[in-house]
Amino acid sequence: MAKGLRTAPGERIGETLLERECRETGISVFMPSFWTVVRHQRTNKLIEKRFPLFLGYAFVKIEEEHFALAREAKSISYFLRGGGRYGLASFSDSKMLELYLADLEAKELHATMRRNGEADVRKERREILGRQLGSIFPKGRRKKVPIRMMAAAAMNSLTPRARERCASILEELEKLDKADAESCKIPTNPLTSAA
């Protein structure tokens, strides 16, 4: 199977060549699949992978006027009849609906896993930056004062190199706070409908 697209917008992330060609032709396509989200061992970046349930196969709904366009598509080589009455691998409409609903649930679960994973990465990064910021200052500081306030207040008394490092850490912490605020604005359960 071909690689999925990495730089596609929104819903088309992980789209296969077959799905893209059908979408561009105007053919409605459905490829049931599931996603995994894995964190890279060194970089802590989240890696998303999509695995189709039926490798190399997709369900298409072709209107009669689009059938000639579908036959000319490069990524479509054969057609299997549908409707649940033909051949070895036929699916009834109720089974197709079950697959579609399961795919919607898997997409929502994947989106939740991605949001949670991104939040975990930001939290770990924030803890690392806090420790680095604490290591710049002398030991024995008062624990009641937040480290960011202390860093902002003591910035002028630091050496130029430590001041530069402290400023970059504070800037990165601000970016993490903005990313957290933006992620809170995104609705956690977008309403989807199978109708």
TrEMBL record:
A single GO BP term for this record reads:
DNA-templated transcription elongation
- SUPFAM superfamilies for the chain: N-utilization substance G protein NusG, N-terminal domain (SSF82679)
UniProt domain NusG-like N-terminal: residue ranges: 12-96
What InterPro entries does UniProt report for this protein, alphabetically?
NGN-like_dom, NGN_dom_sf
Give the record's keywords alphabetically: Transcription
One Pfam entry name: NusG
Q: Which Gene3D superfamilies did the record assign?
A: NusG, N-terminal domain
What protein name does the entry list? Answer: NusG-like N-terminal domain-containing protein
- Species this protein is from: Agrobacterium tumefaciens
